[in-house]
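Entry type: protein chain
Record version: 2
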Amino acid sequence: MLLSALPALAYVGLIVYSVIDCAQTPAEELPPPGRAWWMTGILLVPVLGAAAWLLAGRQGRGRHERAPAGPERSAGYGWTAEGVAQHPIGPDDDPEFLASLGRAQREQKRLLTRQEEDRRRREQQQRDEPGAPD
């Protein structure tokens, strides 16, 4: 029963994904002929329209975009000389993230050390008080 519904679910999922992706794509990133034409194609010729959108709508989009033209390129953090954006692939490749982890670990170590010293001091005070049970 569920296996027979799988193609229908894949069909609906493809169409819904394509419509939402097309609707959320910024206007400057839309491939020609425009949003209205793409939506019409996706909805009227569902599988072919959705497949065409997924192929054409992805060109030029992604993690490594081209550098902006003009003065903002010279501001340049994150752009190479070739104009390709440089982004860390994962958190373990991001130096700022790694530095923040190191700071957090040192702070946690300091806190644990301070708590351990406080515990030892309280235990020593309890032992030194007269009338404390041994």
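Comment: Residues 112 and 118 are 10 Å apart (CA to CA).
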